[in-house]
Amino acid sequence: MPIAPTSKNVRRQKTFCEFITTNYMIEDNGYLKVLRSDLLGKEDSIMNKGTIEELRNDTSCKHYNVSKKNCKGNEPPGLATFGCAFEGAYFALAPVSDAIHLVHGPMTCVGSTWEFRHVGTTYEGLDKTQMGFTTDIGEMDVIHGGEKKLAKAIDYAVDKYHPKGVFVYETCMTALIGDDIDAVCAAAEKHWNIPIIPVHAPGFIGTKNFGERLGLEAAVDHLVGTQEPEYTTPYDINLIGEHNINGEMWLYTPILEEIGIRILSTFSGDGRIDKMRQAHRARLNVVVCAKSSEAICKLMEAKWGIPFISASFYGMREASDAIRRICAQFNDPQLAARAEEIIAREEARVAKALEPYKILLAGRKAVLNTGGNKSWAFAVALQDIGIEVVGVSIRKSNEDDKAKLRSILKADAVLMEKPVLEQIPLITQTNADLLLAGGRSLYSALKKGIPFIEVSQEKTGNYCGYTGLINLARDIAGSINNPVFKLVGGEAPWEKKVSDLEQCLIKGA
Amino acid sequence: MKPNVIMKNKSIQVYPIKLSQPMGATLAVLGVKGSLALAHGAVGCSSLTKIFFTRHFCDPIAIRTTAVNEVTAIFDGGDGIVKEAIQNFLPRAKPEIIGLFSTGMTSAKGDDLKRIVSAIDYPIVYADTPDFVGGLESGWAKMAAAFIEQVMESPKSIRSDKVLLLPHVSLHPLEVEGVKDLLTGFGFEVYALPDLSESLDGHLGVNQASVCQGGIAMNDIRQLGSAGIVISIGASMLPVAEEFLKKSPHSVHINLPGIMGLQATDTLIEHLMRLTGKEPDHRVKHWRKRHQDALIDSHFSIGRKRFILAGEPDRIVDMANCIAEAGGTISALVASTPSKLLERSVAQRTFVGDLEDVEGMIDDCDVLISNYHGERIAHRHGKVQVLRGFPILEQIGVQLKVDTLYNGGTHFLVEVANAIITDHAHRQYH
Fold this sequence. Notes:
The structure holds 2 protein chains of 2 kinds.
Chain A lengths: L6 H6 L3 H8 E3 L5 E3 L14 H8 L7 H4 L17 H9 L5 E6 L2 H5 L21 E2 L4 H6 L2 H15 L3 E6 L1 H5 L4 H12 L3 E4 L8 H15 L13 E7 L10 H7 L2 E7 L4 H5 L6 E5 L5 H11 L3 E4 L4 H13 L4 H29 L3 E5 L4 H12 L2 E6 L5 H10 L5 E3 L2 H12 L3 E4 L4 H7 L3 E3 L10 H16 L3 H6 L8 H11 L1
Parallel strand pairs in A: 3-4, 3-5, 5-6, 7-8, 7-9, 9-10, 11-12, 11-14, 12-13, 14-15
Antiparallel strand pairs in A: 1-2
Chain B lengths: L4 E3 L5 E2 L6 H9 L5 E6 L2 H15 L5 E3 L6 H4 L3 H11 L7 E6 L1 H5 L4 H6 L5 E4 L8 H15 L8 E8 L6 H13 L3 E4 L25 H5 L4 E7 L4 H10 L4 E5 L5 H15 L5 H21 L3 E6 L1 H13 L3 E7 L13 E4 L2 H6 L6 E4 L3 H7 L3 E4 L17 H25 L1
Parallel strand pairs in B: 1-13, 3-4, 3-5, 5-6, 7-8, 7-9, 9-10, 11-12, 11-14, 12-13, 14-15
Helix pairs in contact in B: 1-7, 7-10, 12-16
């Protein structure tokens, strides 16, 4: 039987040291003695690679049986560079703009992260999302422990910036040296009388997605249900997993509000500590485009009986479908009727705005190389503009994403397992007009002389909701006729064949 | 008047500008042709670094990770996963040399890179660069020293016409190219280590993300020992020069604190004239006249203003000198990490700190020169900002900027003066 430290008990194991001390004991002779009964009989093989492999796999995850991969993530050494759990947790919670995000670790963790994402906020005070706070632990802290420094750092930050709360992020270093972050936070919470939330997502514990889940879980554990809202309506919802990057959320929330649905709380785009504390009074949780956030919805469903649905606002059909499904949850014919009215109005508006673009883009073919749920979200949006999607990367997609893709794409569309190798032949074969991908695929597009649109996490524009679709059409139209791709992909004078040069000379003469 | 460097006694960094050793080491590896940076740590160390430099340079960054997780962190002293990492990427990327460096976690748990590397049959250069010690400059220097220590051969003889240039981390790729060109003009055969002038210089390359396409060639590094002259720029490169002199003790070492501004460039040219007995060519001489003219033209605006500079010590001290030459008052320098050079700066006050410290004394300045993170602060307090340092996210062509020597100094003074003039006009008419 595989040994499985499930994601759940990894979360409960508050510090790294605890993980070791509960499972193993170091004997006098220096060997590890295994304490857990299911590890017994494996003492001699504990150091071998197979056992390490087994420990890495979280077999309790539902995706494990399908793809032999789990949500915790076990990226193999040496391959591409994916984000770590800390990054996931930090990006998931950092949009809370009235809280301080204090990273307890050395400099790389926050020095290379802060102010890198444009996260929209309506907060009128000092936007703490765009500030970096770190304890910047040094050599002496590694040796003597960083707890005192952390306590002082919290005191300093709270005293100077008067936040509504503090998130303290554990990192690899502080997990390794075993700082008791929980105790420091608890003491500070008592002293300052504001929520001070330890977030245990050190980088080595898993992928970015897993970290995002751990971060949101920490927020739910510590915040939700600790304050009552001023008033409630029967149509209160929470948005889960929406980070409001580049203000994307604001492209669809006004429509929901117009229908009569109130956004009580968001996790965590344009988020506030107080709103998060009141989230338990919502009637529905809406997971926006992030599978990893479903875990906290289950948590909230179990604790407060809040049902949840998944929704995507990328593309017109998806947005309308999302609005309908949200309204359907409330069982109110009047609300549904109002929703239909507004959907019809918005769809008509989009159709009118898209008219000129459709003439330009009709019949064009695109190859799409992006990660996870964005693969089908963009595919739907492209179809809405009238572009045929002839190939999609599924390298970073999970089983649900793949199923969704198969349901929306034409039967002969190619799902690329290895986009790096497959995309250039695919462009040739299908005569594709356009490549949408992350920055590193630029050269593929140039080689084929076709337009390239960057859709990485950092550079994605406002493509959400109805207006987002118009933005996408505008951006694609802007690229599809841009001469740079052909020009840059062309040959230099010294690369041309001699006969071509002679032709030039004759023409010149 | 000798200003004391003030170390802020805070337990926190707010609006930090400090960057870590592994990040510096990454850049240093990318200054070698056919290299691949391999960060020994959790996946985030390399992915965050990759995003950081990709956005700063707008170019792909060749970096991979050993992806330490909670299991390998305990059971593996690095021996297993470094090997596994190399096996895994070899089918996709075949670097001539792997630049392996540690991060905070792997250094703290005592992974012995030397032992790990000795058991692997592949060319690897390694440096121990925990992120809880030092900063960007020291990480860059440690990796550069590692190449000299582990790759460079002891010379049989040395050549007086061969120069090794050791640029500090904050010199832009095209600035390194400029110094190389100047030295070539004096008749030297020049090599820079690390050399970003053809790797992260913003050229359209093929497959840049898998293996670094430009930089100094490995074969040239092996034969660096025969360089009769070593020119190191910045205090952070002194240890690298020392490492070089251990192997090639008869070479001449010249350390220049900086190469910005009239006097610093004059010093460099004087050294070169003394070494070669030649005069610089006509273009260099003419650029000096342009620089003189720029000093005169810019002193009206720069001379009346007070400046705060924040960033890597070698760079800000150099910039401060250049601005002070045009009469600008340097109210404060805020360095990311301590440096000997700070004690000799022209600034009224010198700190090791963060941008929160800058904001605390923002009233003492009219112009803030810092990285992209300073923008919000400068804007909030209505100050003029000139962007320099790591990272700069909202502008393109960062690596194309040249602020050094006579020509770069001219452009730099003009840019600073224009920023002040534009701001003045803006206030007048709006």
